[in-house]
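Assemble and predict.
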Amino acid sequence: MATDEQNASVELAPDSVLPVAVSSLRASQLNFDLYVRPEICEPPKLYREKSFPLEAADLKRLRERGVETLFVANSDYAAYRTHVLDGLADDSSLEPTERYNIVREVYREAFDTAFQGESLDPMLQFTGEFSKDLADTICENDIVMSDLHSLMEHDSGTYTHCANVSTYSLALAKAMGLADLAQLQAVATGAILHDIGKRAVQLSTLNKPGRLSPEQRAEIERHPLIGFRDLVLREEASWAPLMMVYQHHERIDGKGYPVGVPGKEIHDWAKICSVADVFHALTSERPYRTPMLAEEALQFLEKQADAMFDPETVRCWTMTLRN
Amino acid sequence: MLDNDFEELARNLAKKFDCKIKLPESWADYFQVTGTLTGGPGDRRQFTRVQFRAPAVLEYSQTIPILPRARGQYLVYLKDYSRAGIALIHHEQLYPREQMRLMIPPNKDVAINGCRDGLIEVARCTRIQDCCFQIGASFIEG
Ligand SMILES: [Fe+2]
Ligand SMILES: [Fe+2]
């Protein structure tokens, strides 16, 4: 692989690249550079310059060496995304659910990296693109929600949670009659950002099995406020998605947080996000308990409608999933 | 009226400002409360807070770009203060990052950057009941 050696001295700052799965790459002429990172603490080194096509043999060699992740510069992420999605468009044999899963997969590692970073910018660039692709995939294809649910992996990762809450919120908003694509994209954006404030919560607290101390509970309960505070002054901010971030832990009976407003003061989109959030939390693997079956989670939502959740939103969600 | 008879001052100001705050019935002695406060679990406020139950005037127009606000002056009830900020009761919900001008009555210990009025930024807001929100705000320099 002559290009590896020739360009080994070209380095980027560690925080200026995003990881991409080798499995998402197709052998073709790329229009973005690929980097490797032998050690996590080392700066990324150029692996393949865009002027050299990526061959099937290169991909095979990478797999044989056990390399699962390469990197692209932040500024090239859009080009990488186009590369993967163009491949999807060319492949008509894919089922809608497979197509959806690939869209989710494209963003997985980049999301986790952006979520854990200090700066909000890669995260916001990421969410805009993700929401658009997600809304397009879900709206263009007739994905059956129950299929989609059985497709969701059960793990407690941040990305899985946010991507799934985003998907569920989108499906629920659609089921509740929201038809405008731009608005559906905004729902997806608000939902994928809903827990952005958790960046400020220590991982040991977030993933702690067992009971939280009052201090740890208070720390976790600050995440909607922190998320709102981090996003509200941004130029691209808009009110309804922000309310999904700020109000998704409010309850209809006014006993939620951060403010404790009752149902009539909770934004409709936050009510959607709250149902989607709790549904995913109950049906996914958590450090401290085994997941509930979808039907059990629906029954929990129904029992808590009026107290925790908006009854109309719950009714719509249970109908969507049971159908 | 005595200098520190803030209940009387609140009554007078209420006529002028059409005060919409509804304090809970259990807070009947709101203006009599004195003393210092220690933080509860998870309280990140680093400075001791001192009770300061007095009326004040909050003035705001456009606060954050995406939230339309009508220009207005409102009677609010101060609750407590520290070196870094102040807590007050307001009739409507305010949002984190909103900035506004607060005018406080004379008190030898309390000032916003050394003045009787100055800018504050909302840090948190909790609902006590209808028309009663507790706002925590920090003092803004300059
Ligand atoms: Fe949350
Ligand atoms: Fe969540």
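Chain B has a mean pLDDT of 86.
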